[in-house]
Amino acid sequence: MTPAPWWGIGLALLWSLAGPPAEAAPATYRYDDLIPAFARKYRTSCSTCHTAAPKLNVLGEAFRLNGYRLPENDRLLRKDQPVPLGSEPWRDLWPRAIWPGEVSGFAPLALRLQNDAGATRSPEGTVRWSYRFPNEVALLAGSALGETIAAYLDLAWNPTDGLEVEQANLAFQDVLPWLPSRLANLGIGVQNLRLFTLGDPVVDGAGRAQFLWQTFRVADLELRGGIGAPPPRSEDVFQLGHPQPTIELNGLVRPRLYYAVGLSQGAGPLADDNNAHKDLYYKLRYKLGGLRLDGTYAPGGGPLTGSQGQLLDRALIVESFGYFGSEPTNGVEDAHRSFGLNARMLWGPLDLGGGYVWGRHEQPWGSGSGPIRYGSAFGKAEYLVFPWFIAALKAEALHLSLPGPAVPSGATGVPADQTRVIPGVVILVRQNIRGVVEAELFRRHDPSRELAQATPHNLWIRLDVAF
Questions:
Q1: pLDDT tens digits for 402-431?
Q2: What is the rounded CA–CA span in Å between residue 417 and residue 464?
Q3: Are the C-beta atoms of 175 and 191 separated by less than 8 Å?
Q4: 92 membership: H or E segment, kind and range
Q5: CATH classification of the domain holding 436
Q6: Which residues span the domain enclosing 244?
Q7: Phi and psi of 189, rounded to 5°?
Q8: Euclidean distance between CA atoms 90 and 450, whole angstroms
Q9: SS3 for 8?
Q10: pLDDT grade, residue 381 (50/70/90)?
Q11: What is the pTM of this model?
Q12: Residue 1 within any structural domain of the chain
């Protein structure tokens, strides 16, 4: 992999920390989640930016990309009075003075509480109900630190993993101020890569379950036969959907065209990197029709009417990503790469999309063991039956081409193909209280079939509250 341009990133970061020249136009800031603190900041309802929180509507997505500022008259609409960290004349004295900043006039905190109940089918075929009260408790914090910098924190506790930092990052807007506004923004920290809006836990987070390509790990695959017991598993635990320490450059090339390139740690849940490589990824997104990605309409355009309090759109969104990484396993480096393409159509109350993700691992079980390939076709449909009621359906198929003879000698891969559908409904008890009923139904589940076990169908009920 080409060495990272650390000197360029360092200069951009120092420039953004120091502040732009005095004559530069005011810029925006960006971070990665909408939280109830913004409802308090703007004194507006959750449905201004959400269809069913945390699922964003088109304004919410533009608001997020615009640094959590409303596209028009942001300062006039803010209801809190920020606390300045320095006086305005300091701008004219820079670099002989510190560039002034600000912090929020109120504590920018919010809480999220998830209670889950689930019915799972055991390998023996019995159905077990489990209450996870709570399933997760999260402390959310987000604030602008002046015109060009922002910070975000998502600190979550759950009974299985304990206390974890899900996201914690800083965002710097217009780090190269001689370029057009919003063309070059920098994000640093632990963050969700958001490779697609179709399936993103925030932008497309109406339900509970992620797509298989987001959770797929080579470490979950098994080998059988050969020398040695138990059957070996790969040490590569990388997942495309897992948050990672990341440095990302992103921006809008045009009002409808978004790009991002980043360097990520790629070491799964580890705090320190486990090899001498950094992973590289890119994202591209183009939106045709409707509200543009910069939060404005084309001349003559405007929102749809008759949506009963929900902001709807008519648009086509096309996205692509590529991810190139490497993980150590059994004494060698398992180089891997993934590509994805999807299209998403917003047509009034209908949100419909589909895509394909393809990936390859070169040596997942050590020297001479690979390669393996996987492909996942996926799609989803959501329909806003009422402003407070969404019907949803996801469907996907994961296919793996496993190696023949592998390590140890004579071992072969256990088939691991899966096909499933996920129907569900989302009910807004209140704008910030969300109920979800979702089922996971497998039409094909090779791992359980190979072991003569019952297919692991599931049913989940979630009560999600944010305040």
A1: 766 555 556 666 778 999 999 999 898 888
A2: 32
A3: no
A4: helix 89-93
A5: 2.40.160.10
A6: 6-466
A7: 140, -175
A8: 70
A9: helix
A10: very high
A11: 0.84
A12: no
